[in-house]
Amino acid sequence: MHDDIKTVLLTKEEIDARVQEMGKQIAADYAGKELVVIVLLKGAAWFATDLTRAIDMPLRVDFMVASSYGNGTSTSGSVKVKLDVSEDIKGKDVLVIDDIIDSGVTFASITDMLRHYKPATLKTAALCDKAERRVNGLEADYVGFKIPDEFVVGYGLDYAGDYRNLPFIGILKPAVYARK
């Protein structure tokens, strides 16, 4: 698995430190509010677990499954929602957590959908931001790292379901996805 990584982009230590900083900022921003965190599965599970532990305040957690990638390396352009939220978010402060924002297609689709549930506020957090790939101008409210336009895996990010369990984020060798 490690042989498929071209280079380590973000070490475990860098990720851990930034997640702690983000957690402190989010806790300060939402102090005294009723926060509901919505985690976009599967990729954001690793980031969301660490981030929610770093947010030192009461919060509720819910999950959605949505994807625009399938097993490819770029968005299909259409978002499929396989699991919707179960929490009633009407009138609550909602933070959507995803592993990466690149084209912005998934984030835009999910936030548009969630607005119909009438939350008091709706913000977004992403561990990684590939701004070069954005097609809609959407920006996450909280961003861990701005990264280059490379296909990355690890810390929840995958290629066709693999590499999620790497403790770092690395650039996948193009030869890996060229052979599938």
Automatic annotation (TrEMBL):
<keyword id="KW-0660">Purine salvage</keyword>
<keyword id="KW-0460">Magnesium</keyword>
<dbReference type="GO" id="GO:0046100">
    <property type="term" value="P:hypoxanthine metabolic process"/>
</dbReference>
<dbReference type="InterPro" id="IPR000836">
    <property type="entry name" value="PRTase_dom"/>
</dbReference>
<dbReference type="GO" id="GO:0004422">
    <property type="term" value="F:hypoxanthine phosphoribosyltransferase activity"/>
</dbReference>
<feature type="domain" description="Phosphoribosyltransferase">
    <location>
        <begin position="13"/>
        <end position="159"/>
    </location>
</feature>
<dbReference type="InterPro" id="IPR029057">
    <property type="entry name" value="PRTase-like"/>
</dbReference>
<comment type="pathway">
    <text>Purine metabolism; GMP biosynthesis via salvage pathway; GMP from guanine: step 1/1.</text>
</comment>
<dbReference type="GO" id="GO:0032263">
    <property type="term" value="P:GMP salvage"/>
</dbReference>
<dbReference type="InterPro" id="IPR005904">
    <property type="entry name" value="Hxn_phspho_trans"/>
</dbReference>
<dbReference type="GO" id="GO:0032264">
    <property type="term" value="P:IMP salvage"/>
</dbReference>
<dbReference type="GO" id="GO:0005829">
    <property type="term" value="C:cytosol"/>
</dbReference>
<dbReference type="GO" id="GO:0052657">
    <property type="term" value="F:guanine phosphoribosyltransferase activity"/>
</dbReference>
<dbReference type="Pfam" id="PF00156">
    <property type="entry name" value="Pribosyltran"/>
</dbReference>
<protein>
    <recommendedName>
        <fullName>Hypoxanthine phosphoribosyltransferase</fullName>
        <ecNumber>2.4.2.8</ecNumber>
    </recommendedName>
</protein>
<dbReference type="GO" id="GO:0006178">
    <property type="term" value="P:guanine salvage"/>
</dbReference>
<keyword id="KW-0479">Metal-binding</keyword>
<keyword id="KW-0808">Transferase</keyword>
<dbReference type="GO" id="GO:0000287">
    <property type="term" value="F:magnesium ion binding"/>
</dbReference>
<comment type="similarity">
    <text>Belongs to the purine/pyrimidine phosphoribosyltransferase family.</text>
</comment>
<keyword id="KW-0963">Cytoplasm</keyword>
<comment type="pathway">
    <text>Purine metabolism; IMP biosynthesis via salvage pathway; IMP from hypoxanthine: step 1/1.</text>
</comment>
<keyword id="KW-0547">Nucleotide-binding</keyword>
<dbReference type="GO" id="GO:0006166">
    <property type="term" value="P:purine ribonucleoside salvage"/>
</dbReference>
<keyword id="KW-0328">Glycosyltransferase</keyword>
<comment type="function">
    <text>Purine salvage pathway enzyme that catalyzes the transfer of the ribosyl-5-phosphate group from 5-phospho-alpha-D-ribose 1-diphosphate (PRPP) to the N9 position of the 6-oxopurines hypoxanthine and guanine to form the corresponding ribonucleotides IMP (inosine 5'-monophosphate) and GMP (guanosine 5'-monophosphate), with the release of PPi.</text>
</comment>
<dbReference type="GO" id="GO:0000166">
    <property type="term" value="F:nucleotide binding"/>
</dbReference>
<dbReference type="InterPro" id="IPR050408">
    <property type="entry name" value="HGPRT"/>
</dbReference>
